[in-house]
Amino acid sequence: MSGETGAGRARPWVRVLAAAWAVVGVAVMLLEAIVRLGARGLDTLRAEPLGAWEWATFALVSGSLVYFEGYRALHRRYMPKVAERVMALARGAGPSVVVPAPLHALALWGVERSALVRAWAGVALIVVAVLVVRALPAPWRGIVDAGVALALSVGLASFVVRVARASRSP
């Protein structure tokens, strides 16, 4: 669905629709992963009594993932760029196609080549990490899943706050 005008700029309603769809798409993707992984993590914590080593591992893994992935990677590096691409869609910069707007916000479509390569390399690394974690026995898989859910929660909160602040700015 394209909203091109004669000058090559998207109509205002198409820009707003693309930006809104990018926000919803990114937020729903993160929320789905948080709920799915968080539920698996909670099930692990409830199913079997964890020993001292498991609780220590849970604290270490969760704290590390929240700090390194949630705060440093998502909050400080990735989500500011995602929010910038969303706001660029709203201003009419970037592709004027609505359907892939969340992919554009995540740098998976319609961005410069270097960002595209980095984003798809990140997706490949996530797939490898998922396959490795799926092979872990209980309770270790649930411990990692809970930590990832917490880290993604930091990323989601960062994204929502950044977009809300940016949308209020003149």
Describe the fold and architecture.
- This protein is mainly α.
- The chain contains 5 helices and no strands.
- Helix 1 runs antiparallel to helix 2 (52-91) and helix 1 runs antiparallel to helix 5.
- Residues 1-8 have low confidence and may be disordered.
Please summarize what this structure is.
The chain has 170 residues and is mainly alpha-helical. The chain has helices spanning 12-47, 52-91, 101-105, 113-134, 140-168.
Keywords:
170 residues, 78% helix
End-to-end CA span: 28 Å
Fraction of residues in β-strands: under 5%
**Helices and strands, in N-to-C order?**
HHHHH
Q: Which structural class is indicated by helix and strand composition?
A: mainly alpha
**Major beta sheet summary:** none
Radius of gyration: 18 Å
- Please work out how many helical segments DSSP would assign: 5
Query: How helix-rich are the residues, as a percent range?
Result: over 70%
Average pLDDT confidence is 91
Which blocks of ≥5 consecutive residues have pLDDT under 50?
Answer: 1-8
Approximate shape:
elongated
What's the helix and strand layout?
Elements lengths: L11 H36 L4 H40 L9 H5 L7 H22 L5 H29 L2
Helix pairs in contact: 1-2, 1-5, 2-5
